[in-house]
Design goal:
By secondary structure, the chain is mainly α. Helices cover 78% and strands 0% of the residues.
Amino acid sequence: MKAGTDRPQRWTHVFGAPIVAAVLTMGGLLAALLLGDVGRYFSWLTVASPAAIVAWAWLRLRFR
């Protein structure tokens, strides 16, 4: 690999998924606090999403 021959990755390719997971988690936490019963179910889905992403990535690598 020579310096300068590879095109640098955009920051969205590197940090895009973690930013989306963080925004979903924060939205779920706010929904649980502000929206009552509807927010409770939305928060369970969004707060669990990082754990689901990690499990999906781990299983994908494990059974490759």
